[in-house]
Structure to design on (279 residues):
């Protein structure tokens, strides 16, 4: 069985986020001073997590966030950040660079609701979901190939013995799914074939997680509300999933959400922690 961890983080705040202006793909803003503080805080929160791979959207705000998080990590400061265009924010077409209120007005004029409304030149939700599906299948294939290489080198018995290097520590012990993580000893997980960090964007992440729930029957924390599930992550909000692939079967992943949009690390940053439902 292939088993890997997936940690998804939204980028830090930009001045456009603060002013509620849509960035999408066409506005490539850097992080603000607050955004860098948020990324620092997320990095400290994740500093004891031993990642095996890091992927980021190729937009500047995500790349800066990923680099800042890695810079705080105790184990993988030198890990390569691989940029992937499939992780870009939803494209908002003519609404990019304009206030969120303008998008809502466009939707109302068209007799539609946000976020399902697609402005001229923008991506539909289905198109965003297809990008997310394609990237997730790539991650599953990556984990399968890593597990196969490990067995080729060490054999199944050697892999199952579990060396200390195969143990990954998670910081969110108060948000553990008992079926997946032991909350004893600081929340040390069972053996993982890979532990992947992804830095992306709010609307994209909501669509990706929506795909997990609606298409792949992701198991959610019992205390998660519908409002929390429909909300966009706050800047540098952290979500963590454990994915199992029985017999390397890419078609039927078993996904468990350990935490969604975790933001306890932002308490002392002084930024908005509650995200908009519409983005």
């Amino acid at each position: 069985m292939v088993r890997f961890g997936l940690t998804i983080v939204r980028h830090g705040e930009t001045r456009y986020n603060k002013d509620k202006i849509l960035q999408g793909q066409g506005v490539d803003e850097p992080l603000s001073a607050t955004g860098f503080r948020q990324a620092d805080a997320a990095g400290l929160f994740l500093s004891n997590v031993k990642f095996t791979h890091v992927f980021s959207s190729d937009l500047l705000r995500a790349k800066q966030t990923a680099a800042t998080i890695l810079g705080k990590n105790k184990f993988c400061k030198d890990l390569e950040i691989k940029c992937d265009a499939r992780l870009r924010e939803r494209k908002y077409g003519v609404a990019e660079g304009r206030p969120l209120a303008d998008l809502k007005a466009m939707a109302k004029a068209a007799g539609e609701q946000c976020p399902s409304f697609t402005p001229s030149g923008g991506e539909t939700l289905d198109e965003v979901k297809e990008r997310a599906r394609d990237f997730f299948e790539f991650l599953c294939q990556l984990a399968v190939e890593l597990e196969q290489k490990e067995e080729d080198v060490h054999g199944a018995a050697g892999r199952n013995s579990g060396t200390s290097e195969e143990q990954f520590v998670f910081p969110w012990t108060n948000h553990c799914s008992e079926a997946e993580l032991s909350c004893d000893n600081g929340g040390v997980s069972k053996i993982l074939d890979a532990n992947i960090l992804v830095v992306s964007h709010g609307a994209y992440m909501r669509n990706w997680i929506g795909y997990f729930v609606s298409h792949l029957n992701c198991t959610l924390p019992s205390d998660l509300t519908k409002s929390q599930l429909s909300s966009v992550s706050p800047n540098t909000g952290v979500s963590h999933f454990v994915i199992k692939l029985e017999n390397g079967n890419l078609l039927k992943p078993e996904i468990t959400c350990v935490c969604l949009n975790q933001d306890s690390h932002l308490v002392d940053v002084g930024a908005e922690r509650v995200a908009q439902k519409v983005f």
